[in-house]
Structures are given as C-alpha cells and as structure tokens.
Amino acid sequence: MLTVGSRLGGYEITGLLGAGGMGEVYRARDSKLERDVAIKILPELFAANPERIARFDREAKTLAALNHPNIAAIYGVAESDDTRALVLELVDGVTLADRLARGPMSLDEALPIAGQIASALEAAHEQGVIHRDLKPANITLRPDGTVKVLDFGLAKVLEPVRAGSVDATASPTITSPVLMTNAGVILGTAAYVSPEQAKGREADKRSDVWAFGCVLYEVLTRKRAFEGDDISETLANVLKGRPDLEALPATTPRAIRRLIRRCLEKDPRQRFHHMADVRLELDDSRAGEESAARSSQPAAAGRYVLSALCGAAVGVVAALLTPWILGSSSPPAPVVRSILTTLASADLTNASSRGLAIAPDGRRVVYAAGGQLHLRSLDQAESQPLRGSENGLWPVFSPDGESVVFFVRSEIKRVSISGGAATTLTRTDGGSPAGLSWGSDGYVVFATTTSGGLFRVPALGGESSRLTKAIPGEAIDHRWPSVLPDGRGVLFAAFRGGSSRLAVVSLETGEVAYLGPTGTYPHFVRTGHVVFEEGGALRAIGFDPRRLVATSNSRAEVVPSVWIRNTMATFDIAANGSLVYVPGSAVNPRDRLVWVDRKGREEPLNLPPRAYSSVRVSPDGRRLAAAISEPGQLPELWVSDVSRPVWIRISTPDHDGGDWFPRWTPDSRRVVFSNFGSREPGLFWAFADGTGKIEPLLTIKGNSFIEARGWTRGGESLIFAFGDLPKTRVGLLSMLSSAARSWKPLIERVEGVWPESVSADGNWVVTSSVDESRRDVYIERFPDSGERHLVSTESGGWNAVWSHDGRELFYRRFLDRAMMAVPIQTTPTLAIGTPAVLFESRPAADERMINSRAWDVAPDGRFLIVKADPATQGTESRDLILVQHWDEELKRLASTN
Questions:
Q1: How far is Cα 404 from Cα 400, in angstroms, rounded to an integer?
Q2: Confidence (pLDDT) at 716
Q3: Measured between alpha carbons, how far is residue 146 from residues 126, 571, 838, 879 in Å?
Q4: Cβ atoms 410, 403 nearer than 8 A
Q5: Catalytic-residue membership of 429
Q6: Are the beta carbons of 8 and 28 closer than 8 angstroms?
Q7: What is the pLDDT of residue 412?
Q8: Any idea which architecture 336-587+876-893 has in CATH?
Q9: Do domains 336-587+876-893 and 591-872 have the same CATH topology?
Q10: Which of 148, 561, 646, 712 satisfies CB 3.0 to 4.6 Å to 91 for a cystine?
Q11: Into which CATH architecture does domain 7-273 fall?
Q12: pTM above 0.70, yes or no
C-alpha cells in the first residue's frame, strides 16, 4: 500500500480512495499538468505475469482513446519499480450504489441517468471497447447531475491469459475476473454478469446490454434482477431465472418494461444488439411520457366540459372546472437535464470574460471556442462557428434570438446567427468586459471594469449614453447588467472591490435601489425570482418587476455549484426558464507561496495555504506582506517573517470594504494599504510587527479608488494612483511631517494607462495600458510624463516591477503570463534592452483577480509567487449542463414571499 506523500512516477499520492479486487485506488497530484487524478494500483497477481502486462499495454492504448462526457477518462500508465498503475480521471460524487442505498429512484430521476449510461456505453462500443463489469458501484453521480461510468474495459485488461496462465486453478467455467473469488472481488458483481459470461464465453456488446438492463431494473426497484445467497446461486438465477417485472413500480411505462425485458433476454440473439437501440428506446419513452403529461389533462378537461353540457348540474360542474379555465390546462413540464457537448477548445472558464449565453427560447446556446463564438442548436449534434464573431467575448442573444452582440477588444459588435459581417454598435473605454444585456426596448446595456457605471447604446448602433454612475464609498463600478423583460429597469451588481451588492435602476426615473443581498450576475426569472451567484452557488430571492423591489429576504440555494473565476460566473438563464451552466467545484481554492529563482526552480515556503490576493517582500528581504481572504470575507493585511513563517494580522476586521494592495515603506517598518469601504476610499498604514494603531494617511473625496504605487528617493513622498475609472491620476503625498501632510497632483490621464511602480532613483515610472484585449508595458520619465517608451514586445505585458538595483525591469507577458526580464539603463540616457523569458510559472491569482499582482521580487533576486494549492483547487470542466424547464424546479426550491 502506498503512503500519503509518496510518489509514483510524476504523481504524488495525496490519499486513499478505496480498494477492491481490481486493485487499490489513490488520489494523486499530477505535478506536470497540475491536476488531481485517480491512481489504480493493479494487483500483484497481475504484475507478476509478463503476458498480462504486454496485453495490458496494448489494451490501455485503446481505452485511453475513449473521449466522452459520461466516461471517466484513462489518462495513461504510471510505473515505478515493480508497481504498475493506471492514471484515471478523478470523479467527485457518489456512486449509484450509494444512491440506491437510500431507496429506489423515481422515473423522472432514473431515466436521465439511464440515458447518460446508455450514451457512454454506445460511445465505447463504437470504439470497440466493452465494459464487461457494469454495475452501480462503477457509476458515479456528480453533484451537477452528470453521470460518469468508471473502469471501462478494465475487466478485459486484467483478465488472465487462459492458455498456460498462472491462474489455471481458477474455475474453468468462470474465466472473467469479475467473478473470480481469488481476485478478491465482492460477491455482488456476479449479479450483473450475462449468461454467456457465466458460461465462460467471450463477452461482447450484448453483454453490456444485459448489465445495463440489470442496472436499470435495480434503479427502479432497489432490488437486483438476479439474486442469490452466494455466487453459485446467483449465477444459477442468471442462467435459469427471470427478473420479477411485477416488482417495477405500477407507474412504469409499458415501453420501459419492454426495454428491460429485451435487455435481459437469455439468448444474446434475442437481446438488443446495440446500445444505440437502447438509447433510442429510452429517448422515445421519455419523449412519450412528456407528451402524455402535457396532453392528458387538457383532454380530461374536454371530457368534463362535454359532461357539463350534457348534464343538468351545469353550475356545479362549471365550479369544478374553474381552476382549469382560469389557470393552465397542463401540468408543470418535467425538468430535464442533459449535457451539451462543446468543442475541445471551448473557453468556458475564461478568467477575464464570460463566454456563454442561451437564447430566449432555450433552443440555442452560443459559447467561445478557438478564438471565436460557436453556435450549438439543440436540434443539431454539433456546434457551428458563428461567422463574423472572431475574437468575440461575452455573447448575448437578442430578444428574438436571431442575433448576438458581443465584446471584441474595445468594441461592441452585433452579428446575425445566420452569419455575415458583424456591425459595430459602439466603442468602449477599453476596460475588460463586465456585462452585456439586450432589452426589449431596442437598447443594449453594457459595462466594463473601468467604466464606473452602466451605459446604453441602440441595438442598431450609435452613440452610447451613461445609465448609472458609481458613487464613491458605495461602489467602484457597476457590473453585470440584466434588463428586465418589461423594460422597466435593469438589474446589476454594485462592485466595490471584493464584494458586490445587488441593485436595480429604473429606466423611467434613473433611481437606483439596492435589493439587499451581496452577489453577482442577477437574472430575473419569470417565476418572480432574481437568481444570482454568491459564493460559487446560485441563489434566489423573490422580486416584483413592477415595483422593482425584493419580495423575500431569504436567499435559497438553487444550484449548489457553478464555475467561477475572477468573479466570472459561467451560467445563463433563458426567458423560457431553461438554465445552462458550467458546473464548478465546491471547494474553497487556496494558494501556497513559493520562492522561484531565475531558472524557474521552486522552493515552497513553510506557510499554510491561504487565499492570497497580493504579496510584497519588504525592502530588507526579511518580511512578507499579503492581503488574505477567508471564505465569505473581505481581505485583511497580514505580515510574516521569512525566517519564522507565522502570519500576524496587522489590519483590523472592522475595516469594511477590505484592505488591499500592501506597499512597504522604504525602512521596512510599516505597510501602506488601500481600503474601499463605506466611507471614501483611502490610504492607511500600520506597523509591520502588529503594534500601534492603524493610521489614516489620505482620503480624496469623489474618487472610486486610491492605491500606493511607490516612493520617491529617500521615502520623503508616497506616489499613489487615484481617480474615478477610467480616468487615472497620479499624486504625490509628502511624508515628512505627520502634522502637515499634504499632497499634490502630478499626472492626469484621460487614456487608460495604469502606473505600476517607480524606479529606485525616483525618476522613472512603469505603466501599463488597461485595455485588457491588449496590454503593453511602458516606461515614462517621472514626474514629467511627456516621454513614453514601449518596453514589451508583440506579445504584450503587464504587472511590471523594477529590480531593487534599478538595472532590470520584470513583467508578465500578456500572451501566456511568462516572467520576462528586460535590462534597463537610466543614466546618462535611457536604454531599454530586449525582453527575455525567465520562466513560465503562472501565479494562481492570475486566474481569480486579473488586476492583482500575485508575485514580487526580493532583494536577493528571487521571486515570491502565489501558486495554486493542488489539494484545494476544483477540476476544470468544459461540460455544459442544460436544464430545460428549470423554472419549475426553481418554484419548488425558492419562495417569492
């Protein structure tokens, strides 16, 4: 047995997941690809046979080629000494066996699961792979409703070589390892073996069909189709017995009963030959059930009317009919979950923009992939590129579903879903996309991360106009607009740096009202709810769209986990109530701090994993400062000694708005930081040893942000950036006397350029453009800003920092975040060298906080970098989960009162 912390090839063991006849299974970390995997250690009996190993290598290549959303993938093989293992996809969730321990499933719950199992088997059979050991324990149900079938083909891989095998002592009539007691397999496996397997014959696709029938029967009854007190009795029932179809629920449709019977025919020739046939039968059955449900009650209503007309007691019958006449004549539509396949290049978890939208009628989905948008219609099997949408981000459908608007760099464009040339609606301020919504009034509402509010532009193009303006102290900017269906108002979130409040603006009066909850991405649903993201989950409150007020205070959780990175939640809700989303991780991501030398070699610091948003090394190299967040809380400032790795909190938790962007004083005694609270944004400082009180340094009214960016020579003055986005200004705060601190403006900008840091001699400032479709690094003379020089190459750059000796400039390459180094000479004249790659270690915070510098350079030349902690990171997913008629489920989960 392997121990936690041991290594097998390039994999570090992090825990034991289970053990059985097929081997031990461990959780492990792939250090090369930085992902969690499952490692299945094959039994010693297997490893001792060279013939089995040779066949294993051949079969493993075939199994690794399987690629389907309902199949847990086989990534490869790991070897070390005499240990051989399979590297598998790590699937979180509960097994179908665990779920059945709580009781049988309803038909509505069972059929979508059965459909996904059938799709997995069909895809494998098309590749010539037979499962051979399908059973509830090998089927995992993920929290998002996705079904994953595990251990495809492993029974074949592990099967002994019959002729001359060391396993010749095994029963001659039981050659499949799923039945071998000397392999230590649990008794229950025999209950799913087909008659031909029980007779020792070769398994084929029809054997999987049999096992599927056994599983579906058990799902609906919580009983095995073939039971026995031991293997012999179980196999006897498999060979001679018949499943008790009367045990199926009385409501089981005739088509499902027929399907199970056809799957469990003893003679393989009378059984379904292909899983495609089984899947089609399932699809027809589900469609028939939905159609019957929709049509049965109107028909019943018609019979009642006929009876009323023919009878004498018309008034009594009419009273009975009133609910049908005044309300809907059909029952609620069934909630249907399915997986939409996307291209492998689908960029659904982009850290800087959302790339997913669903049409108002729920029949089309558009998503970003491979540098353009792609359209996926539900009546088509594959996605099609949306012509004219190259480099498009943040797509949104028109109210009629026939057009899409999207961001392209600093423009908003529109294109028809039938293709053609895209037209430009307007230009933005160059900030990152922060929301689009197309209203029924013929206007598109949009926001960027630097706009400071919401804007409107005619859907046919023209001049944009401001709709809202963020008020300093309440919000930095307004993001994620969603126009209400009746055009009375726009939902949005007031973002203030780490948190955001849900709000609505009236399009009639321009008044802004807050709804109460914190969260992002508010969507109105026709059930009378506002659904929004908070803490990685979707929640709902009641909302009256006529009065523009919340009608309930409770925040019901309606989807436990959606993918979110850098405040970008990946979901959308159609006007007809359908939901599409990318499932997320339920874990709280944490990071580790590591030292990295100029060659990219890493040395982890002995500090616990935390959620870091920015880090700084003191000028003397002895201490670290970081802004650290806890789940559901805003960041606070902490300091640690390099030699004694223990964090000390230096900012107080009563600072609302959070404490951000630490900056050391030149003597390494204090840390300056920003706070974006209910009061005006301000600069504060605190002693690094935790003693004394936090002291305010500067507050400038009417500004949405203020950040320390560097010091003049000798630390006599603090250089800071401030303004009301997108307008950035640079100021100078005198620090000579605490009694007479004064500041003066130095640089004013209308263009989007952000000051990064100041050179050691105080004569040069490094800036970067804030247009996130293309960032570049510049160096400018300070404080006279009339001289600007480009530093970065054609790949762009950001997050620039001077070396402590002032001879180099470091920055992150915009294209791939590689660490770049540029030789710099500032005297007697400025000379900029050629940028060169140092290493490609990507900081974790690049994925979560696009404007936070998740690294720093120490006086000794090493880099302090925030790296994702493998044990706390979610698994990236490109699955699209579509939930049709989701609003019916929403009504059950959340009240509107």
A1: 10
A2: 84
A3: 21, 16, 42, 9
A4: no
A5: no
A6: yes
A7: 93
A8: 6 Propeller (2.120)
A9: yes
A10: 148
A11: Orthogonal Bundle (1.10)
A12: no
